Amino acid sequence: MKPVIVVHGGAGSIMKEYEEGYCSGVKRAALQGYKILAEGGDAVSAVEEAVVVLEDDPLFNAGHGSVLNEEGEVEMDAIIMDGKDLTSGAVSAVRCIANPIKLARLVMEKTDHMLLTCKGASLFAKAQGVPEIFGEQLITERSKERWRKNLNPGSNPVAYQLGLGTVGAVAIDSQGNVACATSTGGMTNKMVGRVGDTACIGSGGYANNSVGAVSTTGHGESIMKVTLASLILYYMEQGMSTEEAAEAGLNYMKTRVDGSGGVIVVNSTGDWTAKFSTKQMSWAAVKDDQLHYGIYTGENKIVPIAASPQ
Ligand code: ASP
Predict the structure, then answer these.
(1) 51-68: pLDDT as tens digits
(2) Given this model, what pLDDT does residue 307 score?
(3) Interval 259-269: pLDDT, tens
(4) Torsion-angle region of residue 176: left (phi > 0), alpha (psi -120 to 50) or beta?
(5) Alpha-carbon gap, residue 27 to 284, rounded angstroms
(6) Parallel, antiparallel, or unpaired for β 301-304 and 115-117?
(7) Is 32 helix (H, G, I), strand (E, B) or coil?
(8) What is the rounded distance in angstroms from the CA atom of residue 28 to the CA atom of residue 192?
(9) Residue 227 appears among annotated catalytic residues
(10) Residue 256 region, left (φ>0) first, then alpha (ψ -120 to 50), else beta?
(11) SS3 string of 87-148?
């Protein structure tokens, strides 16, 4: 099986001045994940590593750079899933850790549970030796500014809520195993304790070796209403291509609940797609040693890996 990785950096509307940063972030993450796959590594490790790259990049709404809740604090959600045996791990409303996706993987591998939240998640993180950091270390000037703007009675929250850079990855490894990972700070100015789609299996992501893997981004409550990741895999099981299924899922979410978002998909034979119903979504993919990337609808730039920045 030829390995494939696809990465997204959030659906929405990206300001011109940030376009390049979003593009180079997803490219770096895809190359990092692909390196693992090319060296014979497994899909779960590849998606985890790709997401870590973006959690560490302050431009994206995950880990460092997460948006703030109504109290001006960071609370993050993340999920990881292994398509081999349908095991998954997720955390929700976690604070004071740098890489929620790593904690989600520990939930998957070291507990009998699938989702830990809030205090329980942080107790588990401590028990596993995950370093605790100051919440302020995750906060950027940009996220503070957005938070302040949204506190303004005249602001249009929806305009600020989308396009902030939730991150995700899907992959298939040389053994034919698929995996997905998604991580986010959620929606800006969300209520304290709000859990979004990202932590919820079938919404923020799903992976099943017999069909493929999906990671989603966009308006979390809409994604949850239609369990977008599962819906897309269901369409694929019914015979649709990755592209048709992604489009059908996003269309259904638009017409049924008026929700917008984006998805990345890989199937069990290594076909992949990146689709969105928002104005933009930064994404990158690597297959056959070619790096693909884009940010606008229909865009698919291709460069050989040797020529791309590492
Ligand atoms: N889906 C994320 C959430 O609702 C936000 C996003 O993808 O932009 O938490």
Answers:
(1) 999 999 999 999 999 999
(2) 63
(3) 999 999 999 99
(4) left
(5) 5
(6) unpaired
(7) helix
(8) 32
(9) no
(10) alpha
(11) EEEEEEEECCCCCHHHHHHHHHHHCCCCEEEHHHHHHHHHHCCCCCCCHHHHCCHHHHHHHH
C-alpha atoms less than 13 angstroms from C-alpha of 236 in its C-beta half-sphere: 28
**Token reading at 38:** 């090319």
Regarding the beta carbon of 25 and ligand 1, being less than 6 Å apart is answered no
Q: Is 11 left (phi over 0), alpha (psi -120 to 50) or beta?
A: beta
Span from the CA of 257 to the centroid of ligand 1 (angstroms): 16
Radius of gyration of the chain (CA): 17
pLDDT tens by residue, 189-239 = 999 999 999 999 999 999 999 999 999 999 999 999 999 999 999 999 999
Please give the residue range of the domain that contains residue 111: 4-307
Phi, psi at 160, each rounded to 5°: -90, -15
Structural domains in the chain (count): 1
pLDDT digit string, tens, across residues 141-153: 988 888 888 877 6
Domain at 282, CATH number: 3.60.20.30
**Does ligand 1 lie within 6 Å of residue 184's CB atom?**
yes
How many angstroms separate the alpha carbon of residue 299 from the centre of ligand 1? 23
Is the beta carbon of 10 within 6 A of some atom in ligand 1? Answer: yes
Which tokens hold the place of 53? 């790259």
Interval 245-301: pLDDT, tens: 999 999 999 999 999 999 999 999 999 999 999 999 999 999 999 999 999 999 999
pLDDT tens figures, 6-55: 999 999 998 899 999 999 999 999 999 999 999 999 999 999 999 999 99
CB half-sphere exposure, 83, CA atoms < 13 A = 32
Residue 286, token pair as written in the block:
């690597």
